[in-house]
Amino acid sequence: MFRRLYDWTLRWSVSRHAETALATISFTESSVFPIPADVLFVPMVLAKPAHAYRLAMIASVTSVLGGIFGWLIGHYAFAALAQPLLEFYGKMGAFDALKDATGTWTILLLLVTSGFSHLPPMKVVTILSGLVSFSLPLFILSAIVARGGRFFLLAWALKHYGPAVVDFVERRFAGVMLAILTAGVLVWLGSSYL
To answer: Where would I find the beta strands (DSSP E) of 41-191?
Structure first.
């Protein structure tokens, strides 16, 4: 099953619509969608290493724009849009705990950690930032640094070490999938307690 999904993602990554899909996923991931843009970004860079920085720019810009959209939801439409969404994803408790511990430095730290590692999920932090009226210019600046830094660093690593990574994944596919699943479970458990 995972091999078919892996092959499907690699085929999609060279589609003529791949950049549009990447932009859409990057935008929605920062405000409402639970799947990180990495699932498409990584195979796209591996398929076209010469376009690594262009793809990083697309993912960064649309991710920041999605974050601004999440901030606007939190600031202007929390009860109507964000609260039902957080309840749907089972993140309302985590959201309330974060809200109670907010301050400028806490929000900045959350923006950086969620921007680089998805913990806590980016959409939770963007909505929270809007709800507590965190400075929008400071929010945008921190999102540019965190999301841009993540995508450009990942693009650089994949551009320079991508063939070795692909070869490693191809030869040890079952072990890599087990490691990814284990990491996913640990991330899910970690985000459940945040």
So the answer is: none
